[in-house]
Predict the 3D structure of the following.
Amino acid sequence: MKSICVYCGSNFNGDPIVRAAIESLAQALTDQNITLIYGGGSVGVMGVIADEVLKRNGRVIGVIPQFLMDKEVGHQKLTEMIVTENMHERKQKMADLSDGFIVLPGGFGTLEEFFEVLTWLQLGLHGKAIGVLNVGGFYDPLFAQMDLMVEHRFLKPANRALVFNESNAFGLIDKMSKFDAIPDEVWFKDRNLT
Ligand code: AMP
């Protein structure tokens, strides 16, 4: 993988466990020469991951819509900043530029981006790996909800299995790099889409 998109919060609670996980992810990315693609913000977890990668001389590409840039929250020191017209264009660009996706702690925006790209994978619109860096069990309730969806037959087990759940950044990237896009015939049969 040459570039990974990180979805994460525009807020940060200062939790040292979260900070350590962000630092470790930055280290894992820079060790493997992987470019960070992210939302371009200077605030919250977004700002911290960008700074930590830059500190290690890594490459960081921000993708931010004009209206957020205008609110003066765009990071000023990135390797490259791409300014889009709107949120839809931003998310498409972030996905196009990335070979995989990692989810860090965040709020509504983070979950929206995560589930959009996961839905696209479920539909076979891309074949890129998606992993949750589940810091301190923060996302355990979300995975429990996914299991409940399977139990109630709103989610197929094969689709539930599409997302990696790891607490260690190096382990997560290792698993993601071995992720194989499933051939269409198997894809559609397993998922009963047609
Ligand atoms: P949340 O998880 O709700 O904090 O949302 C993270 C998402 O909020 C980002 O991906 C953006 O869509 C949006 N966002 C909020 N503030 C900023 C900011 N300062 N820079 C970039 N994106 C932001």
Remarks:
- Residues 3-186 form a domain with the Rossmann fold fold (CATH 3.40.50.450).
